[in-house]
Amino acid sequence: MKSQDIVVLLKLLSLQDQELTKGTDQLRSESLGGDPYSVRNLEALLGISKTEIAQSIKRSVASGIARKDNRSNGPRPHRRNLFEFITHGLRFVFPAQVGPMQRGVPTAFAAPMLKGLLVSGGTYDYVWPYAAGREMGQSVEPLFKSVPEAALKDERLHEYLALVDAIRLGNRREAGLATDHLRSRILSK
């Protein structure tokens, strides 16, 4: 597995969630070529090359974290397996790299949709370094270099990625809270 595999899988989750709220027809009309799960559309949304996305999907299917849909043959994340990997293995396989103060896009519990969930004193907010970012905080290396831009395009993807970073960065209390929040997002569907 590579770190961008997690980004691709979280984007697929986000697309599934959008399909439930917006409907299949509207999601198709907003996608390149009409298929929101196509490699071409994922490339445009994530800033990851088509070749790398195709390889990512193959790795994810081989590992059991994703599967091919029976009807469309498109990639679908296996929600329970993905959740288990994120909560129990991700911080060991892809540990968070914290750096100096920088301008960027908020992540972990500094992300806008998670800001009020955790009250903690004396720590800096975390950000993914991004030149056009508006927030200042301690930099965290994202799972893939295009994560800040992709997160700004999709609020649900931003939330998933921020929760993943909270698990990667947090102490037991913070990681536990992020795990509970992620469980309600991933496993309730």
Please provide a written account of the structure:
- By secondary structure, the chain is an alpha+beta fold.
- The protein folds into two domains: 3-92, Arc Repressor Mutant, subunit A (Orthogonal Bundle); 95-186, no CATH class.
- The protein is built from nine helices and five strands.
- Strands 3, 4 and 5 form a three-stranded mixed β-sheet that branches.
- A hairpin with a 6-residue loop joins strand 1 and strand 2 (75-77).
- Helix 1 (3-22) crosses helix 8, helix 7 (147-153) packs across helix 8 (155-169) and helix 8 (155-169) packs antiparallel against helix 9 (172-186).
- The two termini are 25 Å apart.
- The mean pLDDT is 87.
In short:
With 189 residues, the protein is of the alpha+beta class. It is built from nine helices and five strands.
Strand-helix topology:
Blueprint: H1 3-22, H2 24-29, H3 39-46, H4 50-63, E1 66-68, E2 75-77, H5 79-88, H6 90-93, E3 98-107, E4 126-129, E5 135-140, H7 147-153, H8 155-169, H9 172-186
Parallel strand pairs: 4-5
Antiparallel strand pairs: 1-2, 3-4, 3-5
How many domains comprise the coordinates? 2
Q: Kindly name the structural category.
A: alpha+beta
Q: Extract low-pLDDT stretches.
A: none
Number of strands: 5
Number of helices: 9
Largest sheet: 3 strands, mixed
Mean pLDDT: 87
How large, in whole angstroms, is the Cα Rg? 16 Å
